[in-house]
Amino acid sequence: MAVHEHPHRGSGFHLPSFRRPRTASASESAAATTDIRAARAYALASLRLLTGFVFLWAFLDKTFGFGYATPAGKGWIDGGSPTKGFLSGVAAGPLESTFHSWAGDTWADWLFMLGLLGVGLALVAGVALRLAAVAGTVMMALMWTAEWPPAKHLSDGSASMSTNPFADYHLVYAVVLIVLALTAAGDALGLGRVWARLPFVRTNGWLR
């Protein structure tokens, strides 16, 4: 009797494979890296634009009195002072008397408003982010000192209602400004690349 061998049909049991999984090609890896970089650039650009709007809105509201933080008819163009209300209301911290003496001074009003406008325009346009970071950080540091979050009580003895003794929104804004400057966040959705190619900017890196 002849014996015939039939083709083996799988029984459902398979030995594990020790072959390495197929790795992504160089082009696929490069494309993935490009996508990640693009996503990061647009995320930073979005953060830059939103932060810029915060500064610009503060300037516009204090200038024209839109009725939000600044009542209508009490804007800068109406003769109001952008610094008098805030600085005269300082009630804690080592510079309390100093801030009171600055409140409403012409030089203080102009420096504060020019700072808001300059930082806001720089962030929205995506240019001079290093200068904006320095100016904005100084402004935020002064405002942090004016509010003085470490204080549990105000100078009159009442509770300060401070929610955090250190980290408040002024410090967050300062860190955001520094990060935006260090990451060249003006290149996406901004004029950062054009600005960087200007001759006087190329020879003065601090203007980036």
Describe it.
The protein contains eight helices and no strands. With 208 residues, it is mainly alpha-helical.
N- to C-terminal separation?
Answer: 92 Å
Rounded mean pLDDT score: 90
Percent of sequence in beta strands: under 5%
Which structural category do the helix and sheet elements fall into? mainly alpha
Spans of at least 5 consecutive residues with low confidence: 1-11
Main pleated-sheet profile: none
Overall geometry comes to globular
How many H/I helical runs? 8
**Percent in helix:** 40-55%
Care to count the β-strands?
0
How many whole angstroms does the radius of gyration measure? 29 Å
What is the H/E order? HHHHHHHH
Brief descriptors of the model:
208 residues; disordered N terminus
Short structural description:
With 208 residues, the protein is an all-alpha fold. The protein has helices at residues 26-64, 84-88, 96-102, 106-125, 129-147, 169-182, 192-197, 199-202.
What is this structure's SSE topology?
Layout: H1 26-64, H2 84-88, H3 96-102, H4 106-125, H5 129-147, H6 169-182, H7 192-197, H8 199-202
Helix pairs in contact: 1-4, 1-6, 4-5, 5-6
